[in-house]
Design a protein that fits this description.
Elements (H helix, E strand, L loop, with lengths): L1 H20 L3 H28 L1 H4 L3 H7 L1 H17 L9 H15 L4 E8 L2 E8 L6 H13 L5 H25 L1 H12 L2 H7 L5 H20 L3 H14 L10 H15 L11 H4 L1 H10 L21 H13 L9 H17 L13 H8 L1
Amino acid sequence: MLLLVAFSLVAAACLAGSFWFIDGDYTLLLVKHGGYWLLLFAFLIFLYAVFQNRNLYWKNPTALIRQNKWVFIVSALVVGVYFLLQESWFKITMDEVVLASTSMHLHLEKEIFTASRGYEVNGIFYILGGYLDKRPYFFAFVVSLVHDLFGYRSGNVYFVNAVICFFLLGAMFFIGKLFGGKRWGWLSMLLLISLPMFGLNVTGGGFELFNLLMILVTAYLGKCWVERPSETSLVAFTYSGLLLAQCRYESILFVIPVGLLILFVWWKEKKILLPWPLFFAPLILVPYVLQNRMLNQSKVLWQLEDHQSAPFGFQYLEQNLYSAANFFFHLGNDQGNSLLILGIAVVSIVLWLVYKLHFAAFYPREKTGWRLVAWVF
């Protein structure tokens, strides 16, 4: 109980500080100079926790690769085909260039900052201007680590997305396999590959694929936490959720299912586990809150129109739903959707409604934590 009280006090202090007490120049100072090191700390804790649980996630790596060799072969071939068919370049104006610029500054200065102006003087390039960008920076941080290892090249981001695509396709297979066996795994990969927007992101510099991969990784680590709760599996799951929260703007919402699954296992086991890394978890999210608080004061960075008062809110729900429906059901050439997926979706829904045997076709019959995790996520 004493540990829970201490954790609650730490969380309350971080919450109060980030929302009310830290303001002005201190906000920029803490995010710019402290954000990188907090993210590096979280990333290292996450990797170490996953390493400690390696026997839980993959008991025999050699057998796993041998039994699923065609999954890895097909994933590698798909990545290769994408790079043969498409030119590697920034596909989304400004967004991907800004991420590349942020990763460069993370690599050079170990600061959260986006360079906007630079000059070459006597053969040396100097960054002389920049700003704190609105985009979460975990993807840029990962790209900056690649720059650290192999030297800075703006094209490093394409290789990062190629590797991410390979692992994402493999993750889709194994997640699909959890739902209903190997056939569901292959179908999951096929549906993902058939999306034109997926292919565009493979050879681009955006963070979309990385966000999807982190969602699947976090969900799988949640399954392991629910089925075999331990301090190390809790740390891996928690820190995966913290890193996922800093992948895309809306990814912070995944903190909710992560928290709910942690509370559920505590309630089920009648035992509260609080290893020491969890006391740093609220602190990891402080730069994210400070960054959003500061940027919410600027209509320019959020590209808001005159009638818009905030970047996020329920007032946008109607328009977003209309746009989503238009994406899936629009048959023209000005939307990057897929008629194949639309057709399969309609047929699948009809068959599911006819079949409808207590979700037997949708979930594994054996009782596993995956059913709960899938619903909560």
